[in-house]
Amino acid sequence: MIDPVAVNDIMAAAIAGALIIMFGATYALLFAFSRLRGQRLLMIGAYLAYGLLAVSVAVLARTLNLEGFWQSVTAVMLVGYFVAPRLIWNLCAGTHPPHGDDNPGTHPNPHSASGGTMQ
Amino acid sequence: MSTTPWWASEDLWRKWAIWITAFMLVILIFLTFDSVAKITAGSDRVPGYDVINKRIYYTFNAERNMEEPVIGGDAPLFGKMYTPEEAEALVTLGKLTTQAKNCMNCHTLLGNGAYYAPDLTKAWLDQGWGAESVREQLMVSFLMDPTANARTYGTGRRMPQLGITEEEARGVVAFLKWMSAIDTNGFPKGFKPIQQEAMP
Amino acid sequence: MSIGTFDSSNLDAGQKVAVKYFSVAIVLFVAQILFGLLAGIQFIAPDFLYNVLDFNVNRMVHINAMIVWMLFGFIGSVYWLVEDESGVPLVGAKLANLNFWIFTTAVVVVVLVYLFVQVGPGTQSSIWLINEGREYIEAPRWADIGIVVCMLIFFYNVAATFMKGKWSGISGVLVLDLVALAGLYLAGMFFTANISMDQYWWWWVIHLWVEATWEVLVGCIMAWGLMKTLGARRKIVTTWLYIEVALMFGSGILGLGHHYFWIGTPEYWFTIGGFFSALEPIPLVAMVVHAVYDSGVHRFRNGNHPALAWLIAHAFGNFFGAGVWGFMHTLPQINLYTHGTQWTASHGHLAFFGAYATIIIAVMYLAVQKWRGGVWMSGDMPGNGWKWKWSFALLNIGVVGMTVALLIAGYEQSFIERALEGSTWAGYFAGQTQPWFIQGMEWRMLFGWVTAAGIVLLVWDLATIGRGETRTAINPAVSGEPATAAA
């Protein structure tokens, strides 16, 4: 069963849906750059973006009346957006051989003085 | 490559790709068998074509939290009661006509199509036809000469002349009546149907 | 081998066929935009071409031209890489040429019938000969069969070439994906009076094409392209192609459920469609990490600036068009209001352009570069490359502008028609006559003209870029080697 969005919440729901994806990407972006360049400040930004994502998920869940089964959808979003970028990062590191030419962790990165401290 | 951890190996992901795809496909096929049975004409959700002999109502089902169709008493179409075979033939002619006249590139059916003209899912029950008694004839006249009978509601958009014959127009009306009895899970939202004889 | 002119001796046999497909694709792309303009004008001035070239005809050509030009673009791309990837000459070069001409002739006949016959009587013969009246797959049945035959010949050519030469992970995925792509088309080739059944199988074709098999096809082309343009390693690229297939099919196949909310199908599709719709954008978003990782590995020293720009547009376009614009209205609680309104048009414009048009244009730039003998296409082009830069800007601004305008119109439409007026025809028209809707359509038109200006420049640029150029391109696979660049 679904409980459709209330008329006056249509816009809020749509914007929340869009922001989930946007903040999801911002989190992924900052997370990746933080790992790549070894900058902790960026990681704070990443978690901030994730926090905003969580707020957007909450707004979406509220406006779309996500109850019962639909709470699992909320959970999928909260967990999925948090975990997936980390998994992809690990896969990136795993698929690029650690002593090869392709590894950003072993090569000084022109953007970063620290040279990147992966993992 | 020996340095690649097992969980990032090409081999493992090839297997994952195959197994995940196969698994999802099997589920989809299983669900398709079930859904196809449930949307075959004559099922609970998609009525048989002879529903064109009946009056179609909508009532709110609180448990499902949506409007759902209710099949009422006899309401002959064009003053005639059709056998199941005749009804299917007429609806088939109507469906063929909607395809041959490319209705879907202006209208939506079940919400799919183009957005230049109104949705046809519940066109049969639309208030725009005024009274129940004149609806059928209005629809046929409109389909046969949409220019002269234009209903533009102030948009200036008129349906073009598509050379629809009277027989085809009747088929289209039968098709629309049948379609309006499909259980669409409450789509379109909050539909308010035409005034009909009270539900028995 | 000559440089600076279109010389087919610069191309292998597969690539000679590919440039033919690309040429027709561009013509159809122009047709798509031209008929889009006509349809857009009719929203503002409904009497325009009334009973001559009506909205349904214009819109049909608009979306059908798009499907076919993209298919031609994909076929061209596959022919482009097949010899390189297999290591042997194309098995049936003559067959491929013959096939191209048959396919193109059929497309021309279909379009002429669309334009000059338009509609037929309500009989099976209309569906067989004129048009099938089903959105996106309007082609009449004879053409459907022709398309399948042409796809099979194409498939034979590609598969046989790989069989004769060597297989790779990329070619394996590619060939299987082509089987699925052609096979799915069969799901759209039957008539039924039952509109629910009709739509059920119609979505198999449409969704499983654009949200599954097309995505994977693009993934294969990208994988090959990354090796060629950035010198990425085969093993890594192949692993990632598998990862992408797993994620894409894992979420996309049952993502089909979000089209089964309102067509008569059972309520369990709410659950499945809702769940997988929430899942679908996650890989898309997570892949941002991969892009960042790679950009840290490969310094962008690229030998084809227009192609790279279009690849970046692809990444952004796919993210916004499919991800943001899709998820915004995909859950059934909101989709009940937005399904079948201009929201869908908004999403459709950005997603098709962002995910597919962009990458095919990128491949076309790579093709033109090689066709002209591997000419310089980096910075410092004559006129500072103004044509490609302006066409890039105009096309992107045009499509994004149309998308935003349609979204505003869509929001207004769902609000007035669905929420306030109870989804009646009077409600529909009340929505269509509101100032916000009308202005939305006017802005869409304006951005339509911007898009049209962009395509004119694009065609001009593709025809002239690198003409008379004497410098050869940077080979990034060699000179842009990460180790060298990073040192």
Average pLDDT taken over every residue of chain A: 84
- Unreliable stretches of chain B: none
Q: How confident overall, as mean pLDDT of chain B?
A: 95
Q: Give me the Rg of chain B, rounded.
A: 22 Å
Q: Which structural class do the helices and strands of chain A define?
A: mainly alpha
Number of helices of chain B: 4
Euclidean distance between termini CA atoms of chain B = 76 Å
Explain how this protein is built.
The complex is a heterotrimer of chains A (119), B (200) and C (487). Helices cover 66% and strands 0% of the residues of chain A. Chain A is an all-alpha fold and 119 residues long. Chain A has one domain. In chain A, helix 1 packs antiparallel against helix 2, helix 1 runs parallel beside helix 3 and helix 2 runs antiparallel to helix 3. Chain A is elongated and about 50 Å long. With 200 residues, chain B is α+β, with helices and mostly antiparallel strands. Chain B has two domains: 27 residues; 131 residues, Cytochrome Bc1 Complex, Chain D, domain 2 (Orthogonal Bundle). Chain B contains four helices and four strands, in the order H-E-E-H-E-E-H-H. In chain B, the strands form two sheets. Chain B has a two-stranded antiparallel sheet with strand order 1-2. Chain B has a two-stranded antiparallel sheet with strand order 3-4. In chain B, helix 2 packs across helix 4 and helix 3 packs across helix 4. Chain B is elongated, with a radius of gyration of 22 Å. The model of chain B has no long low-confidence stretch (mean pLDDT 95). Chain C is globular. Chain C is mainly alpha-helical and 487 residues long. Chain C has three domains: 158 residues; 127 residues, no CATH class; 161 residues, no CATH class. The longest helix of chain C has 36 residues. The chains are: A mainly alpha (119), B alpha+beta (200), C mainly alpha (487). Chains in contact: A-B, A-C, B-C. At the B-C interface, helix 1, helix 2, strand 3, strand 4 and helix 4 of B face helix 1, helix 2, helix 4, helix 7 and helix 8 of C.
